[in-house]
Amino acid sequence: MYTLLLPILVPIMMGILLFILPEPKNRKNLLLYTGIILIFNGILVLRAVFSSVETFTLFSLHDQLSIVFKADELGKIFAVAVTIVWILAGFFAFSYMSHEKNEKRYYAFYLIVFGVLIGLDFSGNLITMYAFYEFMTLCSFPLVIHNQSKEAIMAALKYLLYSFFGAYMALFGIYFMIKYADSSVFVPGGAFGTVENQAFLLIVVFLMILGFGVKAGMFPVHGWLPTAHPVAPAPASAALSAIIVKSGVFAMIRVAYYVVGPEFIRGTWVQTVWLSLALITVFMGSMLAYGEKVFKKRLAYSTVSQVSYIVLGLALLNPIAMTGSLLHVLAHAFIKCTLFLVAGAIIFKTGCTRVDEFRGIGKKMPITMWCYTFASLGLIGIPPTGGFISKWYLATGALDSGIKIFNFLGPIVLLISALLTAGYLLPVSINAFLPGEDFDSKNVKKCEPDKYMLIPLIVLTVLSVLIGLFPNFLIQYFTNLISGLM
Amino acid sequence: MSCILTNQTFSISELCGYGLSFSFGGLRTIYFVIALIMWTVTGIFSLEYMKHYENKKRYYVSFFLTFLATVGVFLSADLFTLYVFFEIMSLTSYVWVAFDEKKESLRAGETYLAIAIIGGMVMLMGLFLMRAAGAGQMEVSNRLLLYIAGFCLLFGFLAKAGAFPLHIWLPKAHPVAPAPASALLSGILTKTGIFGVIWISVTIFWENKAFGNGLLVLAVITMVLGGILALNSHNLKEVLACSSVSQIGFILTGISTVCILGEESVLAAKGTILHMVNHSLFKLVLFIVAGVVFMNLHKLDLNEIQGFGRKKPLLQFIYLMGALGIGGIPLFSGYISKTLLHEGLVEAGLVTAEWLFLLSGGLTVCYMIKIYVLLFLEKNKDETVQKKYDNMAKTYMNKKTAIALTVSACLLPVFGILPEYTIDKIGNYGMEFFGLEPMKEVPHYFSLENLKGGLISIGIGVVIYFAVVKLLYKKQKCYGSFLPKWLDMENKFYRPLITAVCGVCKFICRVLEGLTDGLVVLLRKTIYRDKPLPHELAEGNEFTYAVGGFMDSTVKVLNKTVYKSNPKENKNYRHKLAMYYAMIHENNKIITRSLSFGLMMFCTGLFIVLVYLLTV
Predict the structure, then answer these.
(1) Which residues of A touch B100 (CB under 8 A)?
(2) Which residues of B touch A377 (CB under 8 A)?
(3) What is the pTM of this model?
(4) Closest chain B residue to A399 measured between Cα atoms?
(5) Could you tell me which residues come within 8 angstroms of residue B183 by beta carbon, excluding any fewer than 6 positions away?
(6) Using a CB-CB distance cutoff of 8 angstroms, which residues of chain A are in contact with residue B98?
(7) ipTM of this model?
(8) In chain B, at which end, N or C, are there fewer CB atoms within 10 A of the end residue's CB?
(9) Does the beta-carbon distance from A419 to B515 stay under 8 Å?
(10) Distances in Å between the alpha carbon of A383 and those of A67, A459, B148, B368, B435?
């Protein structure tokens, strides 16, 4: 029973312990400590993932106010994604953070957030989820603010402002949900029985979706993303973009599919608005990324766009599209983590932050840039990489859904966005590997990053390609999961 | 995951989600063999051609990957598999175009990649729609949707094939790629597009007259335009690239005739297949000849390479085989396929198209004569240069290249002289792809009727050569172009269009993006009454800081102007005023905190009360 708590509490406790402990004299000890806990917790998570589904109530204040944990199928998918990304980005940080101050604080909060995220994924009802959601915002704040420059402080404040705005809307919704939902735990397919105040409840549902949409970077509340990502240290922005943003998606799924139920939303104005917002975000994010010159900001806009692919799939309320969404959760987590880590490796090794400074960088860091190229192809959706399969499912799901206008508009916008994705990712590769004949390629010094940086990059790239090549066991798993929802 | 080999298909299930499946036989096998031949010959030539280049590794990697992807395209049994390999092929072949990293190569590569990716995305849309329309099931539920899907797929395939108006990448990309790669790009990569066009035409648009006519218009425009562009160009490889556009037009004409005629289109179908095969071989030979020229001279401009071929009989022979073949001269293989295509047009009763077909044939003859004359007959204007060229007679290509090239060149007359034993059989073998029964009897290729068509084309070619090319050459004193520059569709239409559309979208997105942030700022300024960030002053307050700063700068200005000769000492008014301020502040504090001040205020209060009582 209590074993489910272990992967949540161990990193949190260890993070707090690390925070209290004095600054270690030897940097190696710090890394060893963090590394061991990351891997140990990875094992704990895997143990929880492979054990059977169990519900576990920690304590309850009141019939409907209880802290419940439950590792169900959906939570397991996200927990696995969190674990892979967190461990790899953590190892990347061992090398990257050597240039930064306050390393101890970074690792402490990094560990805490790890535990909080697992808690979020394994939480069994809205209250528990909300609590971890808020913890996540607060604990990831120090990661954004890490270098303490004025810019970072402003960005982190913006992050807080948007996050709290969203969280309060969600909290507002939760008050009503507790009254109307039949059960105090998540129920696949929704717990809404027959409801009287449908019109009012729809507004509540919409506010919750919008509130959680803040973390998912959905228009019009995406503003924090392109501000916060570039200022955070690269491994932190990788984790932000790959995981924290996905927790918004996760919360959305919980609300729409486990509390309210897809049948309640289907065909209402909420679905229409949800779809429209997702489509606008997909297009807007890509377009802005296309025009952006600062590399990390470009990637942040790309996240805005790509996460809305996932949101689009959710909003369609269609099993095939939902499969695409869940596939894209994994594909995007691995790909975007790779891309941000590549940005980190480039900053670490050369100090270049703008794409126009990347000329010929493929000659200096070939392995890094190959990882970048493969990840980019995945994000564009060139077969046989990961993004292709998820896009295929999203688009066919949209066409299957039979929602007027959106069934065609969805795939078209997805493809235009994919085109723009090619437009903002590939030129970087081309410029890196084919700098032009006047580039002095003979006097280029190789400056490939060390193994702490390279191995996570390579592993993530391979994962993102493998998802595309052998997606079927995942698809099978998702189909089973979704058949319980719709 | 499992591999299943059934009758003629081989499928690997679950790879890439839907599983990839391959099929053999017919046109697929023909093109598999042609791919093998072409990659072998260009591979042999590459060894010599690439000897002095850096980045050879890059070239060979993309060379092999593209081979695998191309074979994958030709062997794929369903459109999903085809799409997967098509995309891989487009990306790996990009490296060829941008290979030498020159400015124009990178630009051409950009165009190539853009068209490939746009084409790919539109094709993907086609695949989605096809699935939505229920293709593959017993009954197609939505015919209109299926047609739209067909057009989307066609767009992608036509872009790769280089049909008008998507031909723009071809004349830019082929000249800048290394010659063996251009031979492959033109000889076989464009054919993957054609392969797809045939696939779509015979599955979705079978016996659809309206579609056939529409495709015919595009085909004829491509055919004529390619010919004119080739005549206009003064770069050897660009001439060949434009010629590819034109020949693709010929092939497309054949496909559209098939669509119009339906079951009775055996001649046109066979012509299409044969012209595909022939064109692959022609372009293999011709581009490698161009490669030999470039390898020795590092130039491609017609005026500079003039006279290179003199005293090089082998090169002349090889070029002639290719040129006579592509020109459709009787006894060469091009004549066979063009005759079949022509007969198809006659059968369909399309008179205008038929004449334009003959005209394009004439244009082909004309630009081939032009190159032959300037390369092998005329002398270079600069005599020392000509001497240099003549001295290269022994060293201009090595033995391996010569053998590979001669063998492939000899195929063409063999095909042309003995059609019934060679090329006719190939045509029949590929017919299955069209879903047609192979022809029982061999057509009379050398009948008077057929010879007439060929001769008309040759006649037109010769007339145009003397009337246009020669005349122009005399007037300009060099080989130049006659079409104005503003006709360049890429620079004058596509690029500005894309820039404009992107600009508008970007503006809209910026506005959208700013909405929320703007609202937040507005709220901060109005409801929250946001103050500017606290700016701690070391001493004094804002007033003393501002006034002091003003006085300081006034003194500075005065010192520089009025008191130039006798500058006053800078007293640092900021500090001084701050001191005054602190003194006053301190005194105020002392006063306000004292008991006397309190009593005074008390008195004032009493006084005010008194006044109030008295007045009210």
Answers:
(1) 437
(2) 91
(3) 0.86
(4) B132
(5) B38, B42, B45, B283, B284, B286, B287, B288, B291
(6) 430, 434
(7) 0.88
(8) C
(9) no
(10) 44, 19, 23, 40, 29
